[in-house]
């Protein structure tokens, strides 16, 4: 790759950002398609977000991904927001055209595209979603648009109520689609459930507890953990013989969609996947 006066600059803003795999696969994608561009990790502390955004505009950066902890906060500093990002209340992709910033959320697309690799036929299915934070909102948005019925288990019930309220614009039958469930009652509904999805950070550490009794999972369940590793939940799913998936497909597909928004070109998915040797 040659960097010259015409090289376009893209990147990711987050804090921390060192662990991010996006620079690896986005760079590979640019290289593969012969696009003269680089993709840089930018470590941006929360107190510097506003000046960082001004800096991106001033330096004619063409686009960035936005990750933790800026996905919600960044909305204050953009000119336009896509429909799905507005409902999800989180932006993970910025496209910057002559200082005008448009915010998108490609996490929802990323999640559902990954899930369809293990279950193409989602309509009419029932999912159990663990967690109701930022990541969960993108997951839930995508599931509702596919006609999936959802139980949400979360410590804080108010966050589920907020999701129901915010997602009313998607369907007037939202309360038929989303129901709150306490963690301790999960076993009562597992028979009805087709897909189990962990969106919490529980499982990131090996010593983390189970969110419910994982030995109650059945072979018929499809189990997804959006964490990028084999968590206790995924190990159990594998042991039971379920179809399962970690967070890497979601990561790749959200990035692929961002790439397409920036370049207008179809993202080279296999190249991107291979670059982080996930399969
Ligand atoms: P993200 O952007 O990764 O989704 P977040 O918005 O902070 O992060 O959401 C974290 C989610 O993990 C929340 O649903 C949180 O539950 P609360 O809403 O009750 O805080 C959930 N979570 C984090 N730690 C947890 C724990 N130890 N047990 C259960 N849920 C937990």
Automatic annotation (TrEMBL):
GO terms for cellular component: cytosol. Its EC number is 1.1.1.25. Residues 12-94 form the Shikimate dehydrogenase substrate binding N-terminal domain. It comes from Venenivibrio stagnispumantis. GO terms for biological process: amino acid biosynthetic process; aromatic amino acid family biosynthetic process; chorismate biosynthetic process; shikimate metabolic process. One of its GO terms (molecular function) is NADP binding. It catalyses: shikimate + NADP(+) = 3-dehydroshikimate + NADPH + H(+). Pfam families: SDH_C (PF18317), Shikimate_DH (PF01488), Shikimate_dh_N (PF08501). SUPFAM superfamilies: Aminoacid dehydrogenase-like, N-terminal domain, NAD(P)-binding Rossmann-fold domains. Residues 118-202 form the Quinate/shikimate 5-dehydrogenase/glutamyl-tRNA reductase domain. Residues 247-274 form the SDH C-terminal domain. This is Shikimate dehydrogenase (NADP(+)). Homodimer. The gene is aroE.
